[in-house]
Specification:
mainly beta, four-stranded antiparallel beta sheet, about 50% strand
Protein backbone atom coordinates (compact mmCIF):
# COMPACT_ATOMS: atom_id res chain seq x y z
CA UNK A 1 0.00 0.00 0.00
CA UNK A 2 1.11 3.61 -0.22
CA UNK A 3 0.31 6.87 1.52
CA UNK A 4 0.27 10.30 -0.11
CA UNK A 5 1.16 13.15 2.22
CA UNK A 6 0.81 16.73 1.01
CA UNK A 7 2.33 19.55 3.04
CA UNK A 8 1.36 23.09 2.13
CA UNK A 9 2.18 26.61 3.25
CA UNK A 10 -0.84 28.94 3.37
CA UNK A 11 1.49 31.93 3.82
CA UNK A 12 1.78 34.78 3.91
CA UNK A 13 5.52 34.12 4.39
CA UNK A 14 7.76 31.35 3.06
CA UNK A 15 8.87 28.70 5.55
CA UNK A 16 12.39 27.28 5.55
CA UNK A 17 13.12 23.98 7.30
CA UNK A 18 9.69 22.75 8.45
CA UNK A 19 9.94 19.13 9.64
CA UNK A 20 7.66 16.48 8.18
CA UNK A 21 7.35 13.30 10.25
CA UNK A 22 5.58 10.00 9.63
CA UNK A 23 6.77 7.05 11.71
CA UNK A 24 5.47 3.57 10.92
CA UNK A 25 2.88 2.44 13.46
CA UNK A 26 2.73 -1.11 14.78
CA UNK A 27 1.73 -3.54 12.03
CA UNK A 28 3.19 -1.39 9.23
CA UNK A 29 6.69 -0.99 7.84
CA UNK A 30 7.81 1.75 5.50
CA UNK A 31 9.90 1.14 2.42
CA UNK A 32 10.94 3.82 -0.04
CA UNK A 33 9.40 7.27 -0.29
CA UNK A 34 9.62 10.11 -2.77
CA UNK A 35 8.91 13.83 -2.61
CA UNK A 36 8.02 16.37 -5.28
CA UNK A 37 7.88 20.10 -4.46
CA UNK A 38 6.06 22.84 -6.30
CA UNK A 39 8.25 25.35 -8.22
CA UNK A 40 10.41 27.41 -5.86
CA UNK A 41 9.85 25.05 -2.92
CA UNK A 42 12.21 22.21 -1.96
CA UNK A 43 12.25 18.79 -0.32
CA UNK A 44 14.56 15.79 -0.19
CA UNK A 45 13.61 13.85 -3.34
CA UNK A 46 13.71 10.31 -1.91
CA UNK A 47 14.47 8.17 1.10
CA UNK A 48 13.60 4.92 2.87
CA UNK A 49 12.00 3.98 6.17
CA UNK A 50 10.38 6.40 8.57
CA UNK A 51 9.78 9.84 7.13
CA UNK A 52 11.62 12.54 9.09
CA UNK A 53 12.77 15.28 6.75
CA UNK A 54 12.69 19.01 6.19
CA UNK A 55 10.87 21.03 3.54
CA UNK A 56 11.12 24.65 2.50
CA UNK A 57 7.94 26.06 1.02
CA UNK A 58 7.12 29.36 -0.64
CA UNK A 59 3.83 30.99 0.32
CA UNK A 60 1.27 28.77 -1.45
CA UNK A 61 3.92 26.10 -2.03
CA UNK A 62 3.50 22.37 -1.56
CA UNK A 63 5.57 19.24 -1.06
CA UNK A 64 3.95 15.90 -1.91
CA UNK A 65 5.34 12.69 -0.45
CA UNK A 66 4.46 9.17 -1.64
CA UNK A 67 5.36 6.67 1.06
CA UNK A 68 5.36 2.93 0.26
CA UNK A 69 4.29 0.69 3.11
CA UNK A 70 3.88 -3.01 3.83
CA UNK A 71 1.25 -4.37 6.20
CA UNK A 72 2.61 -7.08 8.50
CA UNK A 73 1.13 -10.53 7.94
CA UNK A 74 0.32 -10.61 11.66
CA UNK A 75 -1.57 -7.29 11.60
CA UNK A 76 -5.19 -7.44 12.71
CA UNK A 77 -7.96 -4.97 13.43
CA UNK A 78 -6.96 -1.60 12.07
CA UNK A 79 -3.85 0.51 11.54
CA UNK A 80 -3.75 4.27 12.01
CA UNK A 81 -0.94 6.11 10.25
CA UNK A 82 -0.29 9.73 11.28
CA UNK A 83 1.83 12.37 9.55
CA UNK A 84 2.76 15.70 11.13
CA UNK A 85 4.50 18.89 10.11
CA UNK A 86 6.12 21.29 12.56
CA UNK A 87 7.37 24.79 11.99
CA UNK A 88 11.09 25.45 12.37
CA UNK A 89 12.41 26.96 15.57
CA UNK A 90 11.57 30.64 15.88
CA UNK A 91 8.62 30.50 13.48
CA UNK A 92 5.07 30.79 14.79
CA UNK A 93 2.41 28.85 12.92
CA UNK A 94 -0.89 30.78 13.19
CA UNK A 95 -2.97 27.61 12.56
CA UNK A 96 -1.79 24.44 14.31
CA UNK A 97 -5.06 22.60 13.57
CA UNK A 98 -3.90 21.49 10.11
CA UNK A 99 -0.45 20.21 11.09
CA UNK A 100 -1.52 16.60 11.69
CA UNK A 101 -3.35 14.15 9.44
CA UNK A 102 -4.26 10.51 10.08
CA UNK A 103 -5.54 7.64 8.01
CA UNK A 104 -7.11 4.54 9.56
CA UNK A 105 -7.38 1.34 7.56
CA UNK A 106 -9.19 -1.83 8.58
CA UNK A 107 -7.13 -4.96 8.04
CA UNK A 108 -9.30 -7.54 6.24
CA UNK A 109 -9.30 -11.14 7.39
CA UNK A 110 -6.84 -13.15 5.32
CA UNK A 111 -7.18 -16.77 6.28
CA UNK A 112 -6.10 -19.82 4.34
CA UNK A 113 -7.42 -23.29 5.06
CA UNK A 114 -5.41 -26.41 4.18
CA UNK A 115 -6.67 -29.97 4.34
CA UNK A 116 -4.75 -33.12 3.46
CA UNK A 117 -6.52 -36.43 2.96
CA UNK A 118 -5.08 -39.88 2.27
CA UNK A 119 -6.99 -42.05 -0.16
CA UNK A 120 -7.24 -45.83 -0.26
CA UNK A 121 -3.93 -47.65 -0.78
CA UNK A 122 -3.58 -49.66 -3.99
CA UNK A 123 -1.10 -52.53 -4.38
CA UNK A 124 1.21 -51.95 -7.34
CA UNK A 125 3.76 -54.69 -6.73
CA UNK A 126 4.80 -57.45 -4.32
CA UNK A 127 6.23 -54.98 -1.80
CA UNK A 128 4.86 -51.63 -2.93
CA UNK A 129 1.66 -49.70 -3.09
CA UNK A 130 0.42 -46.24 -3.98
CA UNK A 131 -1.48 -43.99 -1.62
CA UNK A 132 -3.19 -41.06 -3.32
CA UNK A 133 -3.26 -37.82 -1.35
CA UNK A 134 -5.52 -34.85 -1.90
CA UNK A 135 -4.50 -31.41 -0.67
CA UNK A 136 -7.20 -28.74 -0.69
CA UNK A 137 -6.30 -25.08 -0.17
CA UNK A 138 -9.26 -22.77 0.47
CA UNK A 139 -9.74 -19.09 1.15
CA UNK A 140 -11.47 -18.89 4.55
CA UNK A 141 -11.32 -15.09 4.73
CA UNK A 142 -13.32 -12.22 3.27
CA UNK A 143 -10.81 -10.94 0.72
CA UNK A 144 -9.20 -12.35 -2.41
CA UNK A 145 -5.77 -13.85 -1.93
CA UNK A 146 -2.98 -13.96 -4.50
CA UNK A 147 0.36 -15.76 -4.64
CA UNK A 148 -0.72 -18.38 -2.10
CA UNK A 149 1.70 -21.30 -2.00
CA UNK A 150 1.29 -24.68 -0.34
CA UNK A 151 4.07 -27.20 0.07
CA UNK A 152 4.05 -30.83 1.18
CA UNK A 153 7.09 -32.47 2.73
CA UNK A 154 5.72 -36.02 2.42
CA UNK A 155 8.30 -36.84 -0.25
CA UNK A 156 11.13 -36.28 2.26
CA UNK A 157 9.58 -38.93 4.52
CA UNK A 158 9.72 -41.49 1.74
CA UNK A 159 13.08 -40.36 0.36
CA UNK A 160 14.88 -42.23 3.16
CA UNK A 161 13.83 -45.45 1.42
CA UNK A 162 12.45 -47.38 4.36
CA UNK A 163 9.36 -45.72 5.78
CA UNK A 164 7.45 -47.76 8.33
CA UNK A 165 3.77 -47.98 7.53
CA UNK A 166 1.33 -49.96 9.64
CA UNK A 167 -1.92 -51.01 8.04
CA UNK A 168 -4.94 -52.08 10.12
CA UNK A 169 -6.20 -54.22 7.25
CA UNK A 170 -3.83 -56.19 5.00
CA UNK A 171 -3.80 -55.10 1.38
CA UNK A 172 -4.89 -57.49 -1.32
CA UNK A 173 -4.04 -57.29 -4.97
CA UNK A 174 -6.98 -56.62 -7.22
Amino acid sequence: TSYTIQVSNAGPNPVIGATVTDRAPSGLSFGSWTCTASPGSTCVSAGTGNLVTQVSLLSGGTATFVLNATVAITATGSITNTATVSAPSGVTDPDLSDNTASDTDTIPDQRVGVQKRAGSPAVVGPASFDIPYTIAVTNEGRVSLTNVQASDSLSTTFAAGNPIITMAVPLAAT
